[in-house]
Amino acid sequence: MNSTSAGLVRHSRLTLVATVLLLGAVFGALGLRARGPEVPDIPFNRAHWHTPPAPTTRLSMLNDLVKGGHLIGRTDAEVRELLGAPQNQVNAPDVAGHYALWYAPGARRPGNWLNTFLMIQIDGASGRVRGVHEVTD
Fold first, then answer.
1. In what order do the strands lie in the sheet with 116-122?
2. What per-residue confidence (pLDDT) applies to 93?
3. Which residues 6+ apart lie within 8 Å of 121 measured at CB?
4. Are 29 and 57 part of one and the same domain?
5. What are the tens digits of pLDDT across the range 74-96?
6. Could you write out the three-class secondary structure of the chain?
7. In contact, 110 and 37? CB cutoff 8 Å
8. Does residue 125 share a domain with residue 89?
9. CATH number of the domain enclosing 112
């Protein structure tokens, strides 16, 4: 290959890379990402939490559990009675006695590759819920 041909190949590759990067930036700015169907928010339903009629049912109830105030002030035992056994329990490294219960809804948010969890913070002194959060990991 002569130097002119090599130069044209290099220029073509750079042009292709620049075009791909530019299109990625434009689509990203416009929010045109690959996404699945939206998961609608639905009110918490204990029966559907324990026996979900669809794979995304628990995920749909997370927003209501986080923002609805259903769990704040409840005891650990009341939370376990309502939601069942957590998938994990983690002690808080910063405050002695505090811990978190982790529940996996069994689905991911559309367009998100990370797992979604319901994290319930329990106050070590009172044994009651002090915070409820949706987190991804």
1. 88-91, 99-103, 116-122, 129-136
2. 65
3. 92, 98, 99, 100, 129, 130, 131, 132, 133
4. no
5. 999 999 999 999 988 888 766 67
6. CCHHHHHHHHHHHHHHHHHHHHHHHHHHHHCCCCCCCCCCCCCCCHHHHHCCCCCCHHHHHHHHHHHCCCCCCCEHHHHHHHHCCCCEEEECCCCCCCEEEEECCCCCCCCCCCCEEEEEEECCCCCEEEEEEEEEC
7. yes
8. yes
9. 3.30.1450.10
Closest CA to 70 of 34, 38, 45, 40: 45
> Residue for token digits 């190949």?
9
129 in the same domain as 81: yes
Instruction: State the pTM of this model.
Output: 0.68
Alpha-carbon span 35 to 11, nearest angstrom: 34
Give the residue ranges of the chain where pLDDT is below 50: 9, 14, 16-18, 20-36
Of how many residues is the chain composed? 137
Tell how far CA 76 is from the center of its chain. 23
Q: Is residue 56 part of a domain?
A: yes
Contact 57, 44 (CB under 8 A): no
Beta strand pairing call for 116-122 and 99-103: antiparallel
